[in-house]
Amino acid sequence: MRTSKIAALGLTFAFLTFLTLPTAVLAGGSAEAGKKVVDTKKLGNCAACHVVPGMEFPGDVGPNLIEAMKNYSEKDREMLRERVWDERKFMPDTIMPPFGANKILTSQQIDDVVDYLLSLNDKKILKGGEHDGAGR
Amino acid sequence: MRRCFYFFILVFAAGAVAAGGAFAGGAGSGIKEYKQNISTREYEKRYNAVYGKFTEQMAQQGNPADFVLDDGKDLFKKVDGSAGKSCASCHGENGEKLKGVAATYPKYDPSIKGINTVALQINRCRKDNMGAPELKYESHDQLALELYVKSLSNGVPIKVSIDGPARPFYKAGEAYYYKRQGQLNMSCAICHVKYAGHMIRANLLSNNRHHADHWPGYRLKWGKTGSLQKRFKGCNKKVRAKPLPFQCETYRDLELYLTYQANGLPVEVPGFRM
């Protein structure tokens, strides 16, 4: 009796999660989350070194990411992820922090960042300049 | 044939001398120093473009660190400790005997078998010559005295020596400067040599030639006066590395390394920075 009640509760919960998950993905939720990671000082702080859309004070230490992303597309997703994970594999003496290798960001956050970066080429999803630098 | 042989020896010797010269900068430590990314002139131009307004404002309103310096001047003459002496008892009423001295600091001191800094020497004088308690590093009085003693060298070109016994300590400072640190995995040199002159968010990355000539100074972000070593701690924290204690051996070696980079520039304290 009791077990079935718990099971029912669990099922409802699972069902609810199932309902909400795909909507978040469809709404481009992870690129949004990625934008926040990119802009937030305590997270990626990518904008300290890179030009990204909508930042008042972007850095110029690294390449302009709006420009750089023109050379990347969906087929480069894995490579892009590796670069954010640990740029040292590509540039051994890089200044860019190894976000994955040093656990600065979680695996999920890096996926979000990559989604965001790839979205920079897709004007329909996220237009440049539409986000304020403060994140949300 | 014989000629050819001599020629070879000559070329070989020349090569060895050239290689020796090239290595003189990083002998033994295996550190390949970065080439300075930006000339002193160009850096000054960018500095004025980014911070010029602030610098002008400060010049008009006065540097809050000037008050700390004034306190240092008074403290210098104040008798303290069991020997009944003040700094002025040994160094002259207005520090006459210390004119230009701070421009040669940090320097190797055989009695501590290491690098002596102005801040450290102030405490050594208090303890050994005055019988007075040492002053806490970064306290108002310690900074005030450091500022006053350094101000006696204002305008004098920095001239620190890294020869002889100072050399290994200089090398240790250099090694620390080039060591990757913290979760963000950065070295001092990558920001202040390789990328000097670039913007990191709203900050202009400064060229390390200009680091040791103007501290202690007032920093707007701190809202108070602080030392060069306080800056070291700040930059350590920025890359999420562990800051070291004030005046520890490594920070003194690092101060020697940075001050040597500033050789030839006039001492200019107190400074002010954003």
Q: How would you portray this structure in words?
A:
The complex is a heterodimer of chains A (136) and B (274). Chain A is an all-alpha fold and 136 residues long. Helix content of chain A is 46%, strand content 0%. Chain A is built from five helices and no strands. Chain A has helices spanning 2-26, 29-39, 65-68, 77-85, 107-119. In chain A, helix 2 (29-39) crosses helix 5 (107-119) and helix 4 packs across helix 5. The N and C termini of chain A lie far apart (46 Å). Mean pLDDT of chain B is 90; it is low at 1-27. Chain B has 274 residues and is mainly α. Chain B has two domains: 2-61 and 159-265, Orthogonal Bundle (Cytochrome Bc1 Complex, Chain D, domain 2); 65-151, Cytochrome c-like domain (Cytochrome Bc1 Complex, Chain D, domain 2), CATH 1.10.760.10. Chain B has helices at residues 2-24, 40-61, 65-77, 87-91, 118-130, 140-151, 167-178, 188-194, 228-238, 249-261; strands spanning 107-109, 114-116, 199-200, 203-204, 217-219, 224-226, 271-273. Chain B has ten helices and seven strands. In chain B, the strands form three sheets. In chain B, strands 6-5-7 form a three-stranded mixed sheet. The interface between A and B is medium-sized, with 16 and 14 residues.
